[in-house]
## 1
Amino acid sequence: MDRFTFRGVYTAMVTPFTKTDNIDEQALYDLINSQIAGGVSGLVPCGTSGESPTLSHLEHDRVIALTVHYAKGRVPVIAGTGSNATSEAIQLSRHAQTNGADACLLVNPYYNKPTQKGLYLHFKAVADSVDIPCILYNIKGRTGVNIDTDTLIRLANDCPNIVGVKEASGNLLQMEEVIKRRPEGFSVLSGDDNLSLDLIERGGDGVVSVASNICPVLMSKMISLALDGKRTEARGIEKELVPLFKACFLETNPIPIKTAMARYDWCEESFRLPLCTLENEEHRRALYQALDELDAVGAITRR
């Protein structure tokens, strides 16, 4: 298959819950329309920010199907379908394909800490089970294992539908090596908002963003400028966003960003255990201060 290069801002969407702990489908609908109106390049439901480990299979499938339905083809939907069980990742990925997702996002298998051979066999099995593009999600801090560059490039060469990587290793040297060795059309996206411009300046393609949940317009503008080579302008916007980037990780993602979304009525301040509301009130004050600064310049999207 021909590679489709994923470039720009892809929002790692929160999953809104009602006060009774069900999926809030109206809030999801409103969020999707706001994101698209804000200029994002695509949507990523059921990732880390979407609290995917606490969704039942039925809920997981429902959120992806609804996202595809609500997006109506206006932007690509990259469905989070990874798992630490290969059979489960295959099942989730096939469901996403059947329901019209444009691509799958496959996180490293977590907890069981496979070898590089195991990682290769896992991702190849999932990619071979679907026809849509697959983007690997390398995040050692969450999964306990890193996809070595040799393994990643081998997968990219052996599996035509493995078309990119979301790089959240935090290792810019590793990202540079991937960019240098990648096949033509292979996308390298930052998994960290604060490293997105550093990655783009090294030849990367964009970001899967947490912050764009609440400020899609400004994030989209920053990444667009960076991809156009307008570094000074992009860095100027980044300076405005840095306090939010930092605040979003004062506690475990997605606790801060979902707290921010709740403040502007996008969702309830509701989490699935073992995640919970912000523990530290100093963290809440820092988050609100960052939001107030952006709101003062019209950068916060309100429901």
## 2
Amino acid sequence: MTDWTIILRSMRARLFSTVTTVATVAVAVALMLVLLTMRDAARRAFDKGGGNMHLLLSRDASPLVSVLNGLFYAGSPRAPIKFSEFESFAANNPLVEWAVPVQLGDSYQARYPVVATTPDFFKLFRPEPGADWAIQGHPFEIDFEVVLGSRVASETGLKIGQWITLTHGFPSQDGSGAGLGHEHNQFKYSIVGILEPTGQAYDRAVFTNLMSTWIIHAFDRIEKEAHAGESDEEHADHADDHAHGHDHDHAVAITAADVTEEDKKITNIFVRVRSREGSDASAALPVLFDRLRRGQGFQGGITVAQPKQELDKVWQIVSNVDRIILAIAAAVMLSSGIAIMLALYNSMEQRRRQIAVLRVLGASQSRVLGLVLTESAVIGLLGAATGIALATIGALIAAGIMKRQLGLTIDPTLQPVAMILVAAGTIALASLAGLVPALAAYRTSVMRNLRPIG
């Protein structure tokens, strides 16, 4: 009878204890691997968020809020920037390679943010350095054309050539539509393009040109002026009709000619500073950053954010929680080692007679010690293998949640180095846990345990 036969029969004889111990180890391994994988993959996804821009300008409360709102659509920007300020900044600044205006504040179906911008958004800005936009169809070219993010298209089933209407107000986090304004059924947008997945928040956005948004704002302004002399009851009736898309007798066709300078507002400016070809670093960046921080060119000042630095801050915040979760995973793994030790030690009382028989048949004390240690290591190996399988499934589920909730597509592939290290650590911990029961087996008295029972 070989040692492996003895070990396998021993494990089958205690099948329930073996299975539950392996399951405990597997859960600990899976938890550790999923956390390590998601941490690294999420970091890579966040690092891509700033694309090829150097600076993000807004009037949000802080640079971090500016990045969260402007790049991840976490909320509606606080205050607008006059388009004339943007034009002056972009035209008269030799340090700027390009600047792209963006306006946020509207939505589609109370779920998807609308990004109003210019065609330069798709020509100059890149979702990540060196990666161009991939679009089915084409970018918007004229007023009232839209490009859908990949997630918007897949979740709504919308196709190129169909028409949609947009809603005033930014989508609420719970998708309830709380705080949204009315839907503009008077203005139909034609879908002319659908983005290929970028793995970023752009996948859950709807893109259109600035003039289309400004026309709608001009329409609201003119409507408000038309109702200026109405009583509260009449105004409420018209507002209710407007919310349900009913036409007004006094409504007029609005065109770009009706848009005033006051209607032309944006919320963000994407800026890339001049740099050498092929280089992302620029000596002009700190100079421009300092000038903007002092409010040059913008009335009332401007909030200046460097996306990479702000995302590093986000990651530092997340990493503090991450360390706690990793510590919990390590504690779970340690508890699985204790479970192995208890399972094997408790079985010693039932196995002392078997061990005594093995000793009589010629098995040395060192061989008995090796059998118990090997059995412990096998339990660790089975737990590690099962844990890797569970981690693969868990990583796919976590990636799906990240994509659905944040619009981030992350690679859920387990890293080979992490798998090897965690598996090796698990087997070593299991072997260490088996040391106490192995010593108990080593010290088993042959004479005392071969006495007749009863």
## 3
Amino acid sequence: MISIHLRASRFMQRKFVTNLALVLTLNLLIKPFWILGIDVAVQNAVGTEQYGFYYALFNFSFLLNILLDLGITSFNNKNISQNNQLLSKHFASIVLLRLLLVVIYAICVLVGGLMVKYNLDMMKMLAAVTCNQILISFILYLRSNLAGLHLFKTDSIVSVLDRLIMIGICGALLYYHNTPGSFQIQWFIYSQTVAYLITALITFALVVKKSKVRRLTWRWPFFMLILKKSYPYAVLVLLMTFHNYIGGVMLERMLPFRVGALQAGIYAGANRLLDASNMIPVLFAGLLLPIFARMIKLRQNVEEMVGLAFSLLVIPAIVVATCCYFFSREIMNLLYKGTNLEEYSRVFKILMCCFIPVAAQYIFGTLLTANGNLKQLNIVACSAMVLITVMNIILIPRYQAFGAAVSIITTQFLNSLAQIIVVRKVFEFKKNISFIMRLLTFVLYTIIINYLVYLFPLFWVYRLVVTALACFALAFALRLISVRNLYRIVKYDE
């Protein structure tokens, strides 16, 4: 007879896999089309330099994004997962608290823009981007309530709704303004505003219905209590945001005016596929956080769940990163126009390797967050922030976008390694020598397969497909991904 703990663990694994399949299907149908179709078309339409200005402003507004949230979303996801009955009480007051934070955030961003000497046109764009950040943050908070209630199907639909609306609006604008120089970057920003506003209103209605809130309540003592509990999450989000977005801002500010915008545009273009790829681990984390939180509360063993997530996320990340490294020039040539192909390719191959440590962080960092190990995570994130800032100051003036790419890949790998060490210490995971050896073998042969197939005299797309299929076949052969285990989990009936 299967023990109660094992039955519960398998039920959680089944819930994770089945809901993951749904959310991945929806997002893989919509978001790649947005990122690789609409977003790329916009950059090609307005030019690398203009898009570079937008990218720098977007990153700047994101650096202060924590003021919009102060860790409330992460805390709320974990808290509602473990205490569903608190949704109505918390939601009625947190919405008003977030409105207060909106005012503080908007003032700080606009004052910050003046301090770094953005001109009038850039300040207008910054104001619009700030509005978008406010709407995005509100949507994420609303979705944290849906995820906390384990309404993963509803959350999956909401997760693609904004992009679906944007595709319709931007697609129409690009179609009717397809001559060079006729499309304006401001239209791209305003299209996002409309899409985020519609999504926020729909999601708000869904959460109100589930929470059965009749009116919003202003309770200052409750605000202080929530902020006290959420501030460790706020510090973590601030440090991680700074680490991930500072490169684009420093490129545009540290280099001469037009050079900085061009290099920021190149970095944005090379980073676009990484952003598209990161969609997958973000979706994993969105499912894993409430599941980990509930398993920890019920004192269930999380080691099998971590192993399952690692197999489904990090192993494919290794394949994707390696293939992109070898086929970097061909992929960049497919996406972009212009004379900066070599620079795009050189930066792209470095940035795509970040997909491996990022994927690992979304598993191990999420586990530590669910367990409340915020102090350890903040120490690791703070160290990474200091390191990437120093490396950018040294490397950007000399190597420009390539220097920023080297900085972030170095800190991402060190960050993920530190999180793995902390997880092993906190949860006392067993050292699986067999798995480590199979993983190292897989990495080595993945590189060899890519190198050999790249030399074949075939059209590059065929070589890329053959390489990816061969690498995944190797993963199955080495039992890094087990079809039998996946089948057992999906078919398992509590």
## 4
Amino acid sequence: MAFSRPFLKTLAAVAMVALVAVACGGGGGKKTAAKGTTTSVEDTSTTVADTSTTAAGGATATTKAGARTATPSGAKVNGQPANNYQPPAGAKAATPAAPGTYKYDTSGSSSFGTQSSSPPPVTPLIVDPPAGSRQHSTRDERDSAGNGTVTETTLDYQPQGVYLVEVKVSTKTTLGAQNFDFVANPPALAAPTGAKPGQSVEFDLSGSGTNVHVKVDFVRTETLTIGGQNVDTMVVHQVSTLSGTLTGTQTSDAWVSPQYDLFVKDHTVADITAYGVKAHSDISSQLQKLTPG
């Protein structure tokens, strides 16, 4: 079976980082914005090629090529170095998801300090057409006033599996707005071809003075009904541990469809601390239907 997106829930922790930083008025990056302005963090020391994509709401996000050559990371597959991974014979590599807009029923809440908020009841995932072996997608969790988080992900589809290249987070609240850029350097083998229950992956993202160590366990297979249609899924459990300027833990359980290359259901809980302020998030979502539109 081929899996490409169980690690997408890593983004929940990254988005929580953005909310905390906005609330605290800082981000640990190269620039700090005053209240009501935007902070830009560009800490991308990787060999990502220059790309420009249009995010939800018409904003343009640019991924810049890094200034340094990528060096080996601590990424692992089943406890062994990821660069040694060989897919089992006959395993089919994942392919990019069908482009278009997918909608998720979303519930839960987030709090930081004395403030709390909830995502819209329906949130879209916009999947762009692939560009070569890479594909960019955008999860938009903003409300009607434009407050909330837009999370962009760049994936690279290879025979060994799907690699996580970059996560970009843009967040706006009544306190201001900030942009964060988290990079896997080099791109991390986050969803190996032929993954089965009982196996695992580990990798790191870094940026904004913070490292995010991610461990994903492939737990079991399960059939769900989405939009009246039965779909086979792999249940994955993910733990992200943040260290540096921001500290804390995010855990999630996600149901991933190998056939459609999408996560179809998830539950994510995050507890993050920054500058003495604690933040908590508990969000669930489920895909409305398996096709875009």
